[in-house]
Automatic annotation (TrEMBL):
GO cellular component assignments: plasma membrane
Pfam family, one: Tetraspanin
Major localization class: membrane
Keywords of this entry: Membrane, Transmembrane, Transmembrane helix
Localization (cell): Membrane
Protein's name in the database: Tetraspanin
Transmembrane portions of the chain: 12-34, 70-95, 102-124, 187-214
Membrane topology type: Multi-pass membrane protein
InterPro entries: Tetraspanin/Peripherin (IPR018499)
Amino acid sequence: MSKVADGCSRGVLALLNIALLLASLVMIGLVLWIRFDNNFEAEIRKDLKIHENINPLGSYKELINTGLTVSFWVLLGFGIAGAVIGLLGAVAAVFNLKCLIGFHFCVLLIMALLEIAVGIYILVTRDTLRQTVQGYVISAYNAHTLDYDSIRMRYDCCGIDGTPDLACLTGQPTCTGAVWDRLDFTLMVAGFVLLGILILQFISCLSSLLSLCIKRN
């Protein structure tokens, strides 16, 4: 019976880690595509790279560019780590390498805890992120820069919250609201994806632990 249970746990562990490997590779591909595809949000990315001497617009641009750079490396790092861990877990399960299964369990648990920490950090700093994004839009609107024109065309919006603009159509969303709503929706989708990956990782941890306990018995 213990051999059957061990085989089942290792089979589940192998499938879960193959799924983690594939999901991580997809994540790496998407991050690299967004980072290096010049056609992705081309106008807005070009405007963000233009150094502005206008304050506080220049400060907001610097904060956003720094945030994008940090996000790129964090997501890429998690993707690479997930791919390596998934590969190690699949190999360990297929060849029944108990030492590697134990190492895989420890590393996967650490990675899951780091992902939880990142998720909590994003939730805690959500209001600060909203203020930064909306501050950038307001500054671009007040300075009449190309940034505002790009945002207005991209999000089909007009004006900013609390400031009537006769050029705006009735019922047209403000740019401060439209940009933040899109970003907030993206963060929500990313949160659900992260939650799904965390569930997959914790099930994989339980499978690793079960396989180790069966072997010990």
